[in-house]
Amino acid sequence: MFSPDILQRFLFEDNAVRGELVHLDATYRAIRDTHSYPLPVRSLLGQTLVASALLSGSIKAHDSLIVQVQASGPVHLLVAQCTSRRSLRGVARWSGAVKPGDLEALCGPGRLAITIDPGQGHDRYQGLVALSGKSIAAAIETYFAQSEQLPTRLWLACDGERAAGMLLQSLPGKRSDPDAWNRVQHLADTVTGREILELSVDELRRRLFHEEDVRVFEPERATFRCTCSRETIGAVLRSLGRAEVEEALAEQGELAVTCEFCNRRYVFDPVDVEAVFTGEAPLQAPGTRH
Questions:
Q1: Contact 165, 157 (CB under 8 A)
Q2: Which residue in 55, 59, 142, 239 has its CB near the most CB atoms, within 10 A?
Q3: What is the pTM for the complete model shown?
Q4: Whether 179 and 236 share a structural domain
Q5: Number of domains in the chain
Q6: Domain range holding 45?
């Protein structure tokens, strides 16, 4: 039975190789539909979302992992975040007409950042590398080779309606078969983008690794969830300072802030702004608009 919106981890027994499969259906479409993305941007964003989900398989509880591309080409920003609970959100920014092409053509020179945010006031860990390669998968493989020195391979696919992918990673440790890492890579390289999108995670794993000794873990559901709220927007307003916020309020009569991830619109009138800075009254939900 086909099971969309799922992450499944697996391990090649006694060979220090781990794998993950991700399929995003409704989750991807919910994120895609927050903005009117051109098809090439929708595809690139979908692959980035899948990559963030795959890489999140190793983060700790309460952490989130962010994959971010900043570049100088037509697609100048890609951000995808996945939490340890497999909730995802993402956004892309582009300018002008975006023609189909590979990563180099769509983004041009730039940088790739992978950030682990433990939350709760703890310091973030971030790795940065120059953006290179013809795909998001190739760029992330380069990141792991340069920054983490951990052999990692990704296969990503998105057709604008669905997004899916696979990760294989060579772990430190002894192997019962010294050729295991090379062999599973060669097996995985036989997969097609269509198979990644159309086969369930179970079918795809069996198609590629049916002769391997694989331990399969319980699947985890993936969902779209934005962490924005009136409280978090209020905190942003406080960081700007009362004088700047009140000046904007005097000019506009009210302040409207739109979350870039989910496109939700938050409106603050003079009473709301006073509450933000004094804390004497709760922020009122009726000021939220869609």
A1: yes
A2: 55
A3: 0.85
A4: no
A5: 2
A6: 6-224
Q: List beta partners, residue 20.
A: 9, 167
Of 117-131, 158-172, 215-229, minimum mean pLDDT range: 117-131
Does 1 map to a domain? no
Q: What confidence tier does 290 reach under pLDDT thresholds 50, 70, 90?
A: very low
- Which strands form 110-117's sheet, in the order they lie side by side? 125-130, 110-117, 64-71, 75-83, 87-94, 223-224
- Does residue 174 belong to any structural domain of this protein? yes
Question: pLDDT digit string (tens) for 227-283?
Answer: 777 887 887 788 888 888 888 888 888 888 877 888 788 888 888 888 878 875 444
Write the pLDDT tens digit of every residue in 119-147: 766 777 888 999 999 999 999 999 999 88
Same domain assignment for residues 236 and 210: no
Q: Are residues 156 and 243 in the same domain?
A: no
Question: Do residues 6 and 201 make contact, with C-beta atoms less than 8 angstroms apart?
Answer: yes
Average model confidence (pLDDT) across the chain: 88
User: Quick one: 75 and 119 in the same domain?
Assistant: yes
139 shares a domain with 235: no
In a shared domain, residues 125 and 181: yes
